[in-house]
Amino acid sequence: MFIEASEVTSLFDANRYVERHGEQVELVWGSEQMQREMPFFEVVGEPEMVAELLIARLRHEADATVLCWAKRRVRYSISDAAAILGMPKSHLSNILSGKKYLPFDFRIRFQALCGNWAIRQYEDSVCGFRSVVETPEQRRIRELESQLEALKAA
Fold first, then answer.
1. pTM of this prediction exceeds 0.85
2. DSSP secondary-structure letter at 7?
3. Mean pLDDT of all residues in 67-72
């Protein structure tokens, strides 16, 4: 989360939030940046897939955003989540009420904060793709098999 030095009120609020929750905030003072760790990813863990039944019932992207928020594992308030994401809480509230869309550069962070891939799964279903979770072991096996095939072809 970046906070401009000109946003004195937000800076105070962010510092108070960090003291309370111990999350990472990058304070921008000209070219200098101070950083703290982001333990909320340790709390939330790796994002999980949402049930396909729920994804199939979604009508549009705003529904997917609301589903992602509703299925969040850690019950952050809107103001806390907005502070973590680095956006005004009014903007996050408008996103969750369907008045605005979640910016593309916030989608991954929002889904990581919520602990699920609801938005990505919805986009995949609209495009006709199937979202599948791959374990690190499966990924390594797939990579090794492709390397083996490439060696056989050479």
1. no
2. -
3. 95
Starting at the edge strand found earlier in the chain, the sheet holding 26-29 runs 2-4, 26-29, 32-34
**Position 130 pLDDT exceeds 60:** yes
Q: Are 58 and 123 in contact (CB under 8 A)?
A: no
Name the token pair of 134: 């791959």
Q: How many other C-beta atoms lie within 10 A of the C-beta of residue 12?
A: 11
Q: What is the dihedral of CA 131, 132, 136, 139, to 10 degrees?
A: -90
Give the count of beta carbons closer than 10 Å to the beta carbon of residue 123.
16
Query: What three-state secondary structure class fits 34?
Result: strand
Q: What was the pLDDT predicted at 132?
A: 81
Q: Which of 68, 44, 41, 72 is nearest to 54 (CA)?
A: 68
- Backbone region of residue 9 per phi and psi (left: phi > 0; alpha: psi in -120 to 50; beta: other values): alpha
Q: Angle 107-114/61-70 helices, nearest 10 degrees?
A: 30
**Structure confidence by residue, pLDDT tens digits, 111-124:** 999 999 999 999 99
- Tokens 């098999």 -> residue: 145
Distance between CA atoms of 94 and 88, rounded to whole angstroms?
Answer: 10
Could you read off the pLDDT of 7-17 as tens digits, one per residue? 434 444 445 55
